[in-house]
From TrEMBL:
GO terms for molecular function: catalytic activity. The lineage of its organism: Bacteria, Bacillati, Actinomycetota, Actinomycetes, Pseudonocardiales. SUPFAM superfamilies: ClpP/crotonase. It holds the Pfam family ECH_1. This is Enoyl-CoA hydratase/carnithine racemase. InterPro entries: ClpP/crotonase-like_dom_sf (IPR029045), Enoyl-CoA_hydra/iso (IPR001753). GO terms for biological process: fatty acid beta-oxidation. PANTHER family: ENOYL-COA HYDRATASE, MITOCHONDRIAL, ENOYL-COA HYDRATASE-RELATED.
Length: 260
């Protein structure tokens, strides 16, 4: 794929379920593109199902670049969609909801994720940015948590933001229902770099290609360790690091068993 070219969406309302999320194979890494531009890439239930399918398709990749078509990266879940019909019986205690499950699958995925933030990343869309290990923002990008303005708590975008930036920055976005431009997002620590709009995918691809040269086992276990260390103490991090090194060595010499 030409790094400067975005997928061409169909006319509004004609995108099939399989095309709601696009996957491009680049060898040891992949590009996943959210493709509902007429809805600013708001994720309805069909798009969320397709995203989980796409994550399974790229399970063996070392790196995944995540971006959106059009002027939005992702504007969260599609609030215009009617809720699903009530199901008989009680809800399972382990049920966390469809969008939360999408984000958990990214957390558990063995690949590192790079968010290529091409435009609006609002509400649940900002959660995707915070859930990626790295994030590159185009100059046109903006990131925000608008939920408070319409009487809703920032159920996923709030905690994901609080886990990524200083408390005062998080409070500013959450309690003012605010969105910030790319340069402010960089200053607050939500993204790693800001680039010209036409350099967004080339830069994200450059990072993906570099990471894809590294050892897959180390990346997989390293991601798990990094996630666990973010809010751990010094002692907990050091112990986890020692166990991660042992796990990497054991994984390389592992022989298949009936339990695999």
């Amino acid at each position: 794929m030409n790094a400067n070219r975005s997928p061409v969406p169909r006319e509004a309302g004609t995108t099939s379920d399989d095309e709601l999320v696009l996957v491009e194979d680049h060898g040891d890494w992949a590009l996943i593109t959210l493709n509902r531009p007429h809805k600013r890439n708001a994720m309805n239930r069909a798009a969320q199902r397709r995203l989980r399918e796409a994550l399974r398709e790229v399970h063996e990749k070392k790196v995944v670049v995540l971006t959106g078509v059009g002027t939005s990266f992702c504007s969260g879940i599609d609030l215009t969609e009617a809720p699903p019909a009530a199901q008989p019986g009680r809800r399972a205690s382990a049920s966390i909801g469809s969008w939360a499950e999408c984000n958990e699958e990214i957390r558990r995925h063995p690949a590192l994720f790079i968010a290529a933030v091409n435009g609006f990343a609002l509400g649940g869309g900002s959660t995707l940015v915070h859930n990626c290990e790295l994030a590159i923002a185009a100059e046109a990008a903006s990131i925000g948590t608008p939920e408070m303005a319409f009487g809703a708590w920032t159920a996923l975008s709030g905690p994901s933001l609080i886990n990524r930036v200083l408390p005062k920055h998080a409070a500013e976005l959450i309690f003012l229902a605010k969105r910030v431009d790319a340069r402010t997002a960089l200053r607050m620590g939500m993204v790693n770099e800001v680039v010209a709009d036409d350099q967004l995918l080339p830069r994200a691809f450059e990072l993906a290609e570099r990471i894809a040269t590294f050892d897959a086992t180390t990346l997989d276990w390293g991601k798990r360790a990094f996630r666990a260390m973010v809010n751990a103490s010094w002692e907990e991090s050091m112990e986890l690091s020692r166990r991660t090194g042992s796990a990497i060595a054991a994984s390389r010499s592992h022989e298949a068993s009936p339990l695999d």
